[in-house]
Amino acid sequence: MVSRAFVLGVLLVGGLPGPRTAWAQGMATADRIQGPGWWPTQGTSPRKDYVGAAACARCHKPHAATQPATSMARTAARAESSEVLREHPALSFQLGRYSYRVDTRGGQSVYTVTDGTRFISASLSWALGVGRVGQTWLFERDGRLYESRMSYYDSIKGLDFTPAHALPAPRDVEEAMGRAVDDPEARRCFGCHTTASTTENALDLAHLVSGVTCEACHGPGARHVAAIEQDRVGEARQAVLNPRTLDPAASVDFCGACHATWWDVTLANETGIAALRSQPYRLESSRCWGKGDARITCVACHEPHRPRETEPALYDTRCLSCHVSGKAAVTREHPGRACTVATARCVTCHMPKYDVPWMHSKFTDHRIRVGPR
Q1: Picking from 6-10, 100-104, 128-132, 168-172, which range would have the lowest pLDDT averaged per residue?
Q2: What is d(CA 129, CA 194) in angstroms, rounded to the nearest whole number?
Q3: Mean pLDDT of 75-84
Q4: Does this model's pTM top 0.85?
Q5: For labeling, which of 114, 243, 269, 337 is most exposed (least CB within 10 Å)?
Q6: Distance between CA 247 and CA 233 in Å, rounded?
Q7: Distance from C-alpha of 216 to C-alpha of 196, rounded to nearest angstrom
């Protein structure tokens, strides 16, 4: 693994060119989780430190009322609770001599693969992804965790290969069925899709909380709750992380713990569509990012406790927090002039969507720019 320090050295002598202007800002997630204090996906806290969302809801009723409806809160479920599987009880896919099926009945989903001679079946254990774009499944076989070779895609209402793991010519039924997920990958996977799945650096699938709930972002709440109950407000505030207090670069890195930070993408040498799908990387590659601007962090546009707004025009007010319109003067705080185009919906031109063929969907490119490139 190439270290961040090495890459910094390369950059200083002119290598690895890129659009970002403030190289020293931000960190790779692997570095963040080694530091002090809480950070998403860290996984070092003991299970007893987690109190659950119901304890948070006693004081934070508005957030608790809306957050369960977000995609983050619904991004993982045990297979028997998957709406996708319940609404599509018979899914099938054929490629050459291999046939794939997912049959759901009586609350159980069975995944079967056959080459016409041999077949293997397994009960699905976990469903990852809400299903608005797609959903991937995990199953256990011979004491190991596997990712299904097939995933569900909503735009086609059916199955296709799991992203980045297409296998047009499997060697046998076992390889056609899925791929083994090792412990480090499982911890990363569940760390972003669930809450308290890794405690004291060990994966604990038996006691995790499905989906991203309060403590996945703010950290374990036991000390916070205990301090509040004893009216030690100052101590309570220090016991959990409030992402709103982070500087712009750290704020974007915070979301990048699961959506990939600028450094995560750079160190992984990802390019093209793979890099485009990292919203933090693309956002910080924008010319207007500069040294970091709180007006264009992830949470400036997306309220994490509410379902994501999908109507482009609703983001215009955020654009106008930096850009002036009409006869208003351009200033240091408002350095850009808005377009004179009559129609609104700024993001449709300046943050266009691009098709990701293997996802059967389009994704918004978060690199803000003037032209289509």
Answers
A1: 6-10
A2: 11
A3: 97
A4: yes
A5: 269
A6: 23
A7: 7
The domain locations on the chain are: 4-39+243-364, 47-73+188-239, 76-180
Pairing of strands 361-364, 194-195: unpaired
Q: What are the φ and ψ backbone dihedral angles of 224, each rounded to 5 degrees?
A: -65, -50
Question: What are the tokens at 112?
Answer: 């079967």
CA separation for the pair 171, 167 (Å, rounded): 9
Query: Could you tell me the sign of the dihedral formed by the alpha carbons of 301, 281, 243, 184, in that order?
Result: positive
Residue 364 dihedral angles phi and psi, to the nearest 5°: -70, 130
Name residue, tokens 């895609």. 153
Do residues 212 and 52 lie in contact, with contact meaning Cβ atoms separated by under 8 Å? Answer: no
Q: Between β-strands 336-337 and 323-324, what pairing exists: parallel, antiparallel or unpaired?
A: parallel
CA-CA distance, 124 to 94, in Å (whole number)?
A: 19
Q: How many CA atoms lie within 13 Å of 146's alpha carbon, on the beta-carbon side? A: 21
What are the pLDDT digits (tens) for 189-218?
999 999 999 999 999 999 999 999 999 999
- What confidence score (pLDDT) does residue 290 get? 85
Q: Which string of b and e fits 239-255 if b means at least 16 CB within 10 Å? A: bbbebeebebbbbbbbb
Report the b/e string of 85-101 with b at 16+ CB within 10 A. beebeebebebeebbbb
3-state secondary structure the chain: CCCHHHHHHHHHCCCCCCCCCCCCCCCCHHHHCCCCCCCCCCCCCCHHHCCCHHHHHCCCHHHHHHHHHCCCCCCEEEHHHCHHHHHCCEEEEEECCEEEEEEEECCEEEEEEECCCCEEEEEEEEEECCCCCEEEEEEEECCEEEEEEEEEECCCCEEEECCCCCCCCCCCHHHHHEEECCHHHHHHHHHHHEECCEECCEECCCCCEECCCHHHHHCCCHHHHHHHHCCCHHHHHHHCCCHHHCCHHHHHHHHHHHHCCHHHHHHCCCCHHHHHCCHHHHHHCCHHHCCCCHHHCHHHHCCCCCCCCCCHHHHHHHHCCCEECCCCCCCCCCCEECCCCCCCCCHHHHCCEEEEHHHCEEEECCCCCCCCC
